[in-house]
Amino acid sequence: MSAERIPLMDETAVRRVVARMAREIVERNGGTDRLALMGIHRRGVQIASLLRAEIESAEGVAVPIGSIDISLYRDDLEAIGPRPIIGGSELPPNGVDGSNIVLVDDVQYTGRTARAAINELMDWGRPGRILLCVLVDRGGRELPIQPDIVGRQVEVMEEQQSVEVLVPELDGRLGVDIVYKHPEEAA
Amino acid sequence: MNQAASALGKDLVGLEPLSREQIVAILDTAEPFKEISERRIKKVPVLRGKTIVNLFFEASTRTRVSFEFAEKRLSADTVNIAAAGSSVVKGETLVDTARNLEAMRIDMVVMRHGSSGAAAFLAERIPSNVVNAGDGAHEHPTQGLLDMLTIRDHLGRIEGLKVCVVGDVLHSRVARSNIHGLLKLGAEVALCGPPTLVPPVFRELGVEVFTRVEDAIQWADVLNVLRLQLERMEAGYVPSLREYNRIWGVSNARLDAAPHDVLILHPGPMNRGVEIDSDVADGPHSVILNQVTNGVAVRMAVLYLLAGGQPEKAEAAKQGAE
């Protein structure tokens, strides 16, 4: 089954949006003081480092960065089974206590990933503030958790379509595609 | 590596029935669990609501405490049952004990038992997950796994390494789990000890047998030194502890003669001055306390993989969700 792909954003579009999100992050935080980025595994990690590079070129400050793997905070272990390999979480160098943490994810959908990531952050310490930042918001929330900073909002069909963020490190290019999961039925 | 191939199934009875991929999956899963024990709040919610019974028919402190830490750090609820003082001494059978526990709605049993095969016997008869924490002289799979994780941490690989298990192999479940696990991961395995405790028949498993500890040290990259139980002397397997130390003891004098550094493992508890000298146990090549630390991570990985290990449901959910 070859899934049908429709490009939503190419590399230029993603970079443009990331530049705007970086500015919004700095604006919301009132500068780069106490700011730390945490990418959610896996593709949130790459988006977080793109944001960090943008913030550095605009503000001249390399903000601390970390990553978070929510596998052990999921609410569906029984339903989908354990992930064979867990990425592991890495704190920003100064920890999370008192920091203004920006959680970065590639796509926001049900809100369950963000819920898990927030819970995990709370177990790490007491962040001063948490902002949620996503490259693409595809709707379909199952929990009342909304992103603070959104790259692009898109309406997709709940069942047949998914949004895939592609990053050079894992997919060979930067971009966002809408993928039909069952092209023969959707056509 | 797909998920179905690496899933563990319902129980962990031993390393012998596992594939190389399954063993590697457990070791890889243990890596991120190490970090949880370094956190300020040493707890993740992944097994919240699960009830685990630690059913120990033989005395054990290290293994039981290690399992208990692993369970608690995954947020499971735990109950410890030691044979002394339990209904076991009143003549209850193993299956009846387990069924009574099941009737109180448990999810997993971690069992230490004096009889080889007890874990497999129980696993076939109850729907809960069963983890073997040592059964007679059969296997002690989580010990084998933590030994391999520690070797991999320090030497970067298992494949191609020469690992020698020294001591009372005959009565040792640790030795058997080491042999099965290490051979599957591509290590060369040897055994060394007095012929009464290392019968030559072990060669049938595909391992080398040394009768002189000096030869083993010359050959090996890693020595896994087993505890010599004092009862063995009374039973006539070795003439005396002093003589055992003189002929088989791992000492610095012997290690100094080796052509390269030898990593020293010991499953504990140690008899200092019998199978291992204090200088060696506390020396720069000893990783005995790293083994203890890794034990918690490996047990967390095993519990995690067993608790969610339903590959057919996982596949179905993947097709539907995403």
Give the helix/strand layout.
The complex is a heterodimer of chains A (187) and B (322).
Chain A: E1 4-9, H1 11-29, E2 35-40, H2 43-59, E3 65-68, H3 77-80, E4 100-108, H4 112-124, E5 129-137, E6 149-153, E7 161-166, H5 168-171, E8 175-180, H6 183-186
Parallel strand pairs in A: 2-3, 2-4, 4-5, 5-6
Antiparallel strand pairs in A: 1-8, 7-8
Chain B: H1 3-6, H2 20-36, E1 51-56, H3 62-73, E2 77-82, H4 94-103, E3 108-113, H5 118-125, E4 129-135, H6 141-155, E5 162-166, H7 173-184, E6 188-192, E7 208-210, H8 213-219, E8 222-225, H9 231-234, H10 241-248, H11 252-256, E9 263-265, H12 278-281, H13 288-308, H14 311-320
Parallel strand pairs in B: 1-2, 1-3, 3-4, 5-6, 5-8, 6-7, 8-9
Task: Describe the protein in words.
The complex is a heterodimer of chains A (187) and B (322). Chain A is built from six helices and eight strands. Chain A is α/β, with parallel strands linked by helices and 187 residues long. In chain A, helix 4 links the parallel strand 4 and strand 5. The relative contact order of chain A is 0.21. Chain B has 322 residues and is of the alpha/beta class. Helices cover 43% and strands 14% of the residues of chain B. Chain B has helices spanning 3-6, 20-36, 62-73, 94-103, 118-125, 141-155, 173-184, 213-219, 231-234, 241-248, 252-256, 278-281, 288-308, 311-320, and strands spanning 51-56, 77-82, 108-113, 129-135, 162-166, 188-192, 208-210, 222-225, 263-265. In chain B, strands 7-6-5-8-9 form a five-stranded parallel sheet. Chain A binds chain B through residues 69, 71-74, 76-82, 84-89, 119-120, 123-125, 162, 181, and chain B through 1, 3, 6-7, 25, 28-29, 31-33, 35-36, 39-41, 43-46, 74, 304-305, 307-311, 313-314, 317-318, 321-322.
